[in-house]
Amino acid sequence: MHLQASKSIPGGVPSSWASSRPTPVWVSHGNGAYVWDVDDNRYIDFHAGYGANVVGHANPSVVAAVQKRVTQGTHFAQPTPDSIVVAEELSRRFGLPQWRFCNSGTEATMDAVHLMRVITGRDLIIKVEGSYNGHHDSVAISIFRSAEELGPADKPWRTPGAGIPQAIADCVRIVPFNDIDALSRLLDEHEGQIAGMIFEPILMGAGIIVPQPGYLEAVKKLVHQHGALLAFDEVKTGLVIHQGGATAMYGVVPDIICLAKALGGGLPCGAIGGTNEVMGAITDGRYNQVGTFNGNPLTMAATRAVLTEVLTDDAYARANDVGAYILKNAISTLQKHRQGVHGYQFGFKVSIVFSDEPARNYRDFLEVSTGAMHLNYLMQFNGGVFLAPWGKSESLTLSVAHTCEHGDVFLRNLSQLGKVIEQMSDRTSEVFAAGSFN
Ligand SMILES: Cc1ncc(COP(=O)(O)O)c(C=O)c1O
Q1: N or C: which terminus of the chain carries fewer CB neighbours within 10 A?
Q2: Do domains 2-54+312-421 and 60-310 have the same CATH topology?
Q3: For the chain, which residues make up each domain, given as ranges?
């Protein structure tokens, strides 16, 4: 199938991130915690479509909502009543009063950047080194690069992604995560020029890197002192780590919140929330937040079901139990095999990193063995567990359908992996490093 697909689809995949070594995985269907490939092999799914499917596959509430809506018309480019319920529920969870919709995380962070520039009348934005905030030009800067390509640690370059002019990257300034002094220096150097800062309150594309105590509060204070705005990219964290994302978990409410992924329960829904001041720029027409499919009726029906029926307080309590069980046992399993390991668990996310030292920022994370994580991906896959192919960067995502028994299969495979890698003295070999691309 991969060979056939490769003739008409570049790389044989609809998105480059659906690629994996040795071959992309073609999925036939999913149900609850499971997915089946086209050869009818069943896997426990901890990939969850890059963390989007915390409701589980074919969740009955989402299926019912979509089935009902699909018979009533799926596109008008006019508002439907479900969107009010969704906006009100997001306000309740995240503490920002106004919400607009879009179709992806990339669109949400693009709107955030535009809004920050429109409101302040300034061009420069700040982003965090190594943090992925989507694939539009203003944020696809200094991501997934080696330390050499990122420049000196104390004066990081702004390294544009492929196809992005340096002139656009030059409207961006880069700071390391968890470094409040670097941010302070940058804001002083560019007094009156910074529109705002956008970043993930927990860095998710690098295992999981948590903010140091007080970091988020200090960022908010500093950014505001310099007349700039603060946007949290909660595309990956929002609704997954906690009912109200990192915003509610840490109690620091920014000016703008970007959501997507888990929000639509498997349908493409993004959202942007803001203070009355920020969203006033949309209301009075200074910024046209637009999109043919924004607030699409099918997406809104699914999202309403996700928020009001599926991702309940009970669902988070269960996810925390299952997640804590997996993390605790994964750490003891790898330690038994004399492997360095640490990890985190928040709600539906579990991150297990093959290193004793928790990273503070993206450069620390580059030191973590890519080979071990890729080998884990392969051994888990052969043992009936589907992880996200970008093994080093990604975490496990649970769904409401996952139980500790599903975790046990993952843990058995992890023990096998431990046995194998504890005997590997040379981890620099070409074979072991073959996973390096992810
Ligand atoms: C933190 C973060 N922001 C933004 C995005 C972009 O979202 P999308 O792929 O829906 O455009 C992603 C996607 O992985 C993400 O992890």
Answers
A1: N
A2: no
A3: 2-54+312-421, 60-310
pLDDT at 146: 84
Ligand 1 center to residue 148 CA distance, Å?
Answer: 25
- pLDDT tens sequence across 35-69: 999 999 999 999 999 999 999 999 999 999 999 99
CATH of 2-54+312-421, one of 3.20.20.70, 3.90.1150.10, 3.40.50.1820, 1.10.540.10: 3.90.1150.10
DSSP string, 25-79: PPEEEEEBTEEEETT--EEEESSHHHHT-TT-BT-HHHHHHHHHHHTT-S--SS-
- Residue 428 reports pLDDT greater than 90: no
Torsion of CA 176, 181, 186, 187, to 10 degrees: 120
> Active site includes 261?
yes
Question: CB within 6 Å of ligand 1 — which residues?
Answer: 50, 104-106, 109, 132-134, 200, 204-205, 233, 235-236, 260
pLDDT at 350: 97
Is the separation of the CB atoms in 343 and 237 below 8 Å? no
Helix (H) or strand (E) holding 300: helix 297-305
User: Does the structure show a pLDDT above 70 at 422?
Assistant: yes
For a ligand 1 pocket test, name from 236, 239, 362 the mutation site with the most ligand atoms within 8 angstroms of its C-beta: 236
- Among 21-25, 137-141, 269-273, 297-301, the least confident range: 21-25
Q: Over the range 207-243, which residues count as b (16 or more CB within 10 Å of their CB) and which as e?
A: bbbbbeeebbebbbebbeebebbbbbbbbbbbbbbbb
- Based on the residue annotation, tell me whether 392 is a catalytic residue of this protein: no
DSSP 11: G
Please identify, in words, the CATH class of the domain defined by 60-310.
alpha beta
Q: What is the mean pLDDT of residues 22-33?
A: 95
Q: What percent of the chain has pLDDT over 90?
A: 84
| Catalytic residue flag (residue 233) | yes
